[in-house]
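Feature request disguised as a bug report, sorry. It would help if multi-protein outputs had a clear separator. Right now it looks like this:
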Amino acid sequence: MLDVRRLRLLRDLAQHGTIAAVAAAHTYTPSAVSQQLAVLEREAGVPLLERTGRRVALTPAGRTLVQHAEEVLAALERAAAALAAGRDGLCGPLRIGAFPTAMRTLLPPALVALGEAHPRLELSVHEFDPAVVPHLLRDGTLDVALVHDYDLVPIEPDPALRTVALLDETIYVAAAEARDLPGCRDEPWILASPGTLCHTMTVRACEAAGFIPRVRHHADDFVTVLTFVAAGQGVALVPELAATGVPAGVVLTPLETRRRTRLAFRAGAAQHPAVAAFAEAMGARTDH
């Protein structure tokens, strides 16, 4: 009988690419992960990994088993959802991840609605950049999350997760006067922290316009970004959700590029009552 916990490790190896990354994700040692995968190989009766020096890759049998592991894990999520649906009313924890502009704009009304409709539901909200959310959903740290991507930085499909569209936003150039993107070639720029989706989006948008942005400041909070623009510290790209309370001296010029906000959860969890209730409060449906 194949062990579900070891199947999860194999699935995560396919996702992360290295045993060290899987170990870090599960707070194990790399040797412990290697030992568990070796046991899984013995259970499967076929080689699952190819080792070349310090690197490992999945064999064809390993890739096949990962596909089945995704189905097994999704089935377990559906089983948990069915059991939760049989309880008397919604109760227990619901761990929600969200990015800062959603925390400030989209999430508060949904939290109020959920609290009124399901007072026994224990809501817990955590702020994360969308780039790290898929891992946190896969390992069970989060139950549901608001994530975003850009047409210039699309989310890679993840068989372990499902997403539901919530909102499309316009992206604006924020400057002291109306400016298109090529007109900002020689301006100093205010970018989000390297490694975030917002940083990558700005760099790619500028590259598509024919230049590399000259970065003066890094700031992740869009209120701060707009304040810096108003203070003459540079130009920036900001999404529509952040374009409220724009300070004097800042002009927003719309671009064609868009940001898409989505509701994300584990595959198989769509019918979990708490996930469905959260989706309803956000104005989405998980049964599409």
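(second protein starts here, but nothing in the output says so)
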Amino acid sequence: MDIKPLRYFIAIAKTESFTKAAQQLSVAQPAVSMAIKKLEMDLGLTLIHRADRNVGLTDEGKKLLIHAEKIIQATDDALLEMSELKGLSQGEVRVGIPSMLGSYYFPPILMAFHHKYPTITLKVIEGGTWQLQKMLENGELDLSVIVAETLPDGLETQALIREEMLVTVATDHPFSQLKSISPERFFDEELVMFKEGYFHRRIVDKLAKDYHRTPKIGFETNLIPLIKSITQQGFGISTLLAMVIEDDDELITRPFEPAIWLDLGIAWRKDSYLSKANRAFLEFVSEHGRREF
């Protein structure tokens, strides 16, 4: 079977449009339509509903999509490995990094890596750990930083960093007089939180569930400077990693009681081929970026 129609089929499934798929693939729309019709004829099945402008997969199409994605990923891995055996490297690392680490932990590591390997292109995607994990599983990323305790069977991980989640308050907040903060007292306050899908928020939501509490979330934002500003002005409290707090932030941090530690690792798919560029990045992070657990 020619795999090119499978690439077209996946693009249609993701964009829900023949036109958008053709634009994404940089081919003419008639070529996409003809390839899909031939694929359906070869299989003897209808794969796509075509109702006016609404394009969707049939039940048969949904089943084929699962196999098509695996076939394309395996083919791309094989082509990359074969090219590297001839001494040709793709020279690209696609890595997902949660926003908090992307802003405060990884910049010097990324710059040092680029200095050592100037011919390797780094594509850094920032987002929530859940979103990044899904992108990694779908082959949209080569590597991603994830919360180690949520590692699914299809991924392997290398320990990276262990950080404590700290209650963060304004300098004049009553919590500043305490040595530690219980979850009960934390959830009595109005909170400034990251949006759902970020490890910061997932940890807080899990903690609330464990203590049978409903968080009083006054502000939701993924912008760390805004979280700091709102907290500084006393409009709520938050919880951040120690690495995020700087000397001039005018914020006070206190540990939870009991303490909450977050184990983060850098992960990749078990069944994928890691290019030389990705292996170089893993080794570099292990040598220069890892904090002991």
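Even a blank line would do. Unrelated, but nice: The domain at 4-85 is CATH 1.10.10.10 (Arc Repressor Mutant, subunit A).
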